[in-house]
Amino acid sequence: MLIWNFVLMLVWCALFGDFAVKNLVGGFVLGYFVLSLLASRGVVGSPRYVRRVRRIVSFAGFFLTELAIANVRVARDVITPGIRSRPAIVAVPLEDLTDAEVTLLATLVTLTPGTMSLDVSSDRRTLYVHVMDLPGGDASRFVSSLKRGFEARVLEATR
Amino acid sequence: MRDAITVGLLAIGSVFALLSAIGLVRFPDLFMRMQASTKATTLGIGCLMLAVAWHFGEIGVATRSLLVVLFVFLTAPAGAHMIARAAYVTGVPLWQGTLRDDLAGKYDIAHHELEGVAKPDEGANRD
Question: ipTM of this predicted complex?
Answer without folding.
Answer: 0.74
